[in-house]
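Q: Give me the 3D complex with glutamic acid.
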Amino acid sequence: MTTTADGSRQASQHNPLDDARSQLAEAAQILGFEPGLIDMLAVPRREVTVSIPLRRDDGTIEVLTGHRVQHNLSRGPAKGGLRFSPDVDLDEVRALAMWMTWKCALLDVPYGGAKGGITIDPRLYSRAELERVTRRYTSEIMPLIGPAKDIPAPDIGTDEEVMAWMMDTFSVAAGHTVLGVVTGKPASLGGSAGRPSATSRGVVHVSLAALRHVGLDPAACTAAVQGFGKVGRGAARFLAEAGVRVLAVSDQYGGVAHEDGLDVAALEAHVDETGSVVGFAGGHPVDGEDILTADVDLLVPAAVEGVLHAGNAGLVRARVVVEGANGPTTQEADAVLAERGVTVVPDILANAGGVVVSYFEWVQANQAYWWSQEEVEERLAQRMTSAWTDVMNEAAERGVTLRTAATCLAVRRVAEAHRLRGLYP
Ligand code: GLU
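A: Here is the predicted complex, encoded as C-alpha cells.
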C-alpha cells in the first residue's frame, strides 16, 4: 500500500474513505443538512498515529505504524475494532471509524465510532512479537481509550488473545483489572457468551430476512461466501444450518465449490487442519475472484473493502448481496447493483451483530454479571430484527436503497445527538 506523507491513500488507489464520504454526502443531502453539519460528520473528531518500535525475536529492531481514529463521540464512548493488516493506512481507518459510528447508531447501541489499525502482516510475526506490538500500541494510545472513552475489539488479523493483552496492558497501568476497556475477550476473562459467533449470526439473520423479502424460500436457496475468517466461516455454517446450500467459499489463498452444496462442517475441519479452504477434498478448486460472480441466490462478501467494483458488479449473479465485510462494495458497484435490481444489505446493518454483542459484553463487564448464551442470542436476534425492520420501513418511505435508508437513519440519529447537545463553546 502506497501512502502520501500524512498517511492518506494515493489518488490512484481505491480509497474506502471516498465511499464512506460519498455515502454520507448522499444521506445528508436527502436529510437536507446544512454544509457545516455535513463537514462535522465527515471529519473524525480525533485521530492519532503512533510508531511502534518492535524488538524482533532475532534481536533486530523494526518500527511499525499504528493509528486510532475516533470518528464520533456524540452518542457515547467511541467503539470499534483493531485491525492488523499490511493494507492498513490512515484513510482506511478513517473510513472504518465512520462506518462504526453509523453502525452503532443504526443498532441503537450507545456508542460513537472508532477504529484502530497497525500496518503489519501478522502471518509473518511470532505470537511473542505480536504480543509486544499489541502492548506497545496499547500503551501509546492509552490516554485515548477506556470503558467510558473508547473501547477496542477484534477485527481482521486480531483475536481474543490480542484483546486479553490490551486489557492486561491497560489494567497494569491503571493498577486494577479493567474488563470494560475492550470487548471480544476470551470467555474466561470476561468475554461474553456468543461474542465469537455474533457477527456471523447477525449476517445470517438478515440474509434469511432479505431472501424472504425478495420472495425466495431460504431452504431452496444457494449461497457463496467470500472470506472464511471470523465472519465468513460462521456465516457459511449458520446458512447451511438454516438449509441454504453453500455452493462456494473462498479465503485469501483460493476457493472451493461443489454444485450440490459444500459439507461446511467437513470444510471447517479441513480448515482447522490446514489453515485454508484450499485442497478440501469435498469440492473442486475455483478462483477466489470467481466466488463473487457465482450463480447463486445469495452472495456474502465477508473479507475486505472494495471487492465489488465497477469491473465486476455487472457480472454478479446473486439476487441478494449481504455485506459481511465492512465496505466490500464501492459506490460505483453499488449503483450498478441497484440498477440491476440486486438487493444489497449494507455492512452497517448486515455485520452489526459483532458490535451488538460487544455492547452486551461491555454491559456485563460494567455490571460484573454474566448472561447465558441463550440470553445473548435472543437479544441479538431482537436487535437485528428491529434494525432490519427500521431500514425496510425507511427504504420504503423514501424510495431508496437499503444502504441509503440505513445511512439516513443512522446519520439522523447522530445529528440529533449533536443538535441536542449543542455546539460548545
Ligand atoms: N470489528 C467489528 C466491526 O467492524 C466489531 C467492532 C466492535 O465490536 O467494536 O464491526
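A quick observation: DSSP finds 13 helices and twelve strands in the chain.
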